[in-house]
Amino acid sequence: MNTAKMKARLIAHLDALLDQRVAALEQSIQSAKESRDSDTKSSAGDKYETGREMIQQEVDKFEGQLAHTRQLKVDLGKINPEKRNRQAEFGSLLICNPGNYFLSIAVGKVEIDSDNFICLSLASPLGKAFYGKTVGDELLFNGKKIVVEEIY
User: Name one GO molecular function term (predicted).
Assistant: First the structure.
């Protein structure tokens, strides 16, 4: 596995995934706003206002998720795929026994060319455990021994 190219492919894959999330959230916001705006006022005024408020809460929730997703895109854009890290930090691709990890954004398992990677943030328990580790370091996580074999 060419780790430099794999890191760039992982970033591109995650960026495309975030683009899909942004598009889906924008569509959800648009649909909810249309639903809210087309809700006609009935003689039961309280029911009308309650319905509109519930829809507005949905819009607010989607807008919060959209802002978070856009921030993830910004964070992902800060990773230089060409940078070779000496220790585990944000943007590091870790080849371990067992498993491969990409310290970036919390997305979970990603498969590229039959290779599996766990994309996790440094805020996660495992991300925190990896932080600062170097090649040859071992860590015990949930009763499982993980050996860092390569860092890129």
Answer: RNA polymerase binding
pTM: 0.85
CA distance 94 to 39: 52
Of 94, 93, 99, nearest in space to 80 by CA: 93
**97 Cα distance to chain centroid:** 23
Identify the CA nearest to 115 among candidates 125, 102, 104: 102
Tens digits of residue pLDDT in 14-48: 999 999 999 999 999 999 888 888 765 554 556 55
Walk across the sheet containing 93-97 and list its strands.
Answer: 108-112, 115-120, 100-103, 93-97, 144-151, 138-141
Is the CATH number of domain 3-77 1.10.287? yes
